[in-house]
Each structure stands twice: as structure tokens, then as C-alpha cells.
Amino acid sequence: MALDLAYRFNKYIFVEADSKLLTALERRIAPYRDKAEIKTKGADCNSAAKEVVSLIPSNSLTLAFIDPEGDVLRRVSL
Fold first, then answer.
1. Which among 28, 30, 35 has a CA at the least distance from the CA of 11?
2. What angle do CA 13, 15, 19 make, to 5 degrees?
3. DSSP code, position 34
4. Most CB atoms within 10 A, among 28, 55, 71, 77?
5. What is the pLDDT of residues 20-78, one digit of tens each?
6. E-strand spans in 5-53?
């Protein structure tokens, strides 16, 4: 898991629409919450895009990993 890397990011933002998968994700990341700022959001990635962007400081180096299953990511969200 990326949270196990020696050189971690300062902040992680995870978005998952499926409540069962979000619960599983929250269980997996629980041990890392004291090592980094971690936020989770139960929402569709398209509806959460603006909120996620607002959580990222404008002067930060940012990496976004988007793993859409199926055809769920709308171009307007990018």
C-alpha cells in the first residue's frame, strides 16, 4: 500500500462511492491516520472533484491517481 512507503505524502484523499468498499478502505487505512493527514469521502468521483481540489493547497506538488471502474469518470471532472 502507498501508505507503507518510506517517503510518504503529507495528505491523502480517497473517494469511494460504494459504501462497502469505503468501509473496507477505512479499515485498511486506520493504522496510518497518525502518520499522515487522511480524508475519505463517500461519493461519486465526479460529484466530489471540486471538493477534492479545494482540499489541495494551490502551491503543493500533487499526484492524483484515478482508478475508475467502468465508464464513470466524466471528462468535465478532469
1. 35
2. 135
3. T
4. 77
5. 999 999 999 999 999 889 999 999 888 888 899 999 988 988 888 777 666 566 655 55
6. 11-15, 37-41
How many angstroms separate the most distant Cα atoms in the chain?
35
Query: Is the model's pTM score more than 0.85?
Result: no
2, three cell numbers: 502507498
Cα gap 12→21, rounded to integer Å: 17
Strand, coil or helix: 50: helix
Of 49, 38, 41, give the one whose Cα is nearest residue 74. Answer: 49
* pLDDT for res 41: 94
- According to DSSP, the residues that pair with 11 across neighbouring strands are 37
Among 21, 20, 17, 40, CA closest to 30: 40
- The C-alpha atoms of residue 73 and residue 38 are separated, in whole angstroms, by 23
| Residue with the three cell numbers 471532472 | 77
